[in-house]
Amino acid sequence: MSYQHILVPVDDSPISYAAVDHAITLAKLCNSEVTLVSVVSVDPYVGVDFYQVAPMITEHFMEAEASAKSRLQEIAQTFDREGITVQSKVFHGSPAEGIIHVADEVSADLIVMGSHGRTGVKKLVLGSVAQSVLTQSPIPVLVIKHQSS
């Protein structure tokens, strides 16, 4: 099977960079185009006094977006050096929703993403973006698992 367009969700975690390495290998083997996506999460604080926290939230989102764009640009250069066609997108919203949305938007036929491998209470409290994407995605998802040392 050959993949024409690979979506690679990235954040600043080491497992995200491991997924990037796998995506580079696959893209070279399949001569695939790649889209990188970074999701800037929406404000989880519903019901707080907007006028008191608005300046802090605005500053936080501006910093998060700038960081995401910088990270995407840095990673895109790695794909460029390998001769792989790459584009980058920033999505605002929940991570799983953003990944699924962008995959559809760019007509990706594979998602390559990292998973921290949380279990038990940590998974329950923190959720699992990879698990959500796996259950919601209509296209194949390659999950690169965290390797403990």
TrEMBL record:
- Please provide the record's keywords in A-Z order: Cytoplasm
Q: Which SUPFAM superfamilies match?
A: Adenine nucleotide alpha hydrolases-like
- Give start and end of each UspA domain: 3-145
Family annotation (CDD domains) = USP-like
**Which locations, inside or outside the cell, does it occupy?**
Cytoplasm
Which terms in the GO cellular component ontology are assigned? cytoplasm
Q: InterPro entries this protein is in?
A: Rossmann-like_a/b/a_fold (IPR014729), Universal_stress_UspA (IPR006015), UspA (IPR006016)
UniProt lists the family membership as follows: Belongs to the universal stress protein A family.
UniProt name for this protein: Universal stress protein
